Amino acid sequence: MKVSPSILTCDFAHLDREMAFVQNTGADLVHLDVMDGVFVPNLSFGPPVIARLRPLTALPFDVHLMMEYPHRLIEAFAAAGADSLNVHVECASPIADTLAHIRSLGKKAAVTLKPATPAQAAFPFLDMVDMVLVMTVEPGFGGQAFMADMLPKIAALRAEITRRGLSVDIQVDGGINEQTAEQTAKAGATVAVVGNALFTAEDAPALVRRIHSL
Ligand code: DX5
Ligand code: ZN
User: Fold this and answer.
1) Which of 33, 39, 66 to mutate to test the pocket of ligand 1 (most atoms within 8 A of CB)?
2) 131-144 pLDDT tens trace
């Protein structure tokens, strides 16, 4: 699996140091959690912070938009340096139009499913995306426990992607550590978002290597 560290649990007083830490783990992407206080009961950061992070690493920025109206800020996130943008299917923006807009800016597009949303909700968008993000916790906070009942959803998405002959990554986000990453890989996930487990790991590069080998 590819590894995408979520910086939500990092030390926000020292973002330059934290970005260097992420890069030194050997991770593949950086996962940036944007929260609007409406779609989820929490607030995080937006385009100005992402723009200041952009020169600190060459790793691609994967931006997870936990927003009710992400379509209003697609161009701002693209200009700030996002390489891929994840839009929740449950949000109030027009999903297909927003995905097309993301791709028209030369960025990768992804749809994201909350735990209560079935795999089938992503099916209409599978040929418009590079990735599907399956939330394995309720979005809003880092450090929660992995929901094993999301495994059949991952398997259903992988089966449909294979059936259609598409090349779409499945990313998992929430409560991912070496053990839960392995379960999701067996179900068909290809990208692991890792927050707490990475930032509290005794040997973060070793953890990344082990998840790479799954
Ligand atoms: C939750 C975020 C996740 C979270 C992952 O709303 O989308 O990216 O930060 O953190 P851990 O790995 O600690 O669950
Ligand atoms: Zn996330």
Assistant:
1) 33
2) 999 999 999 999 99
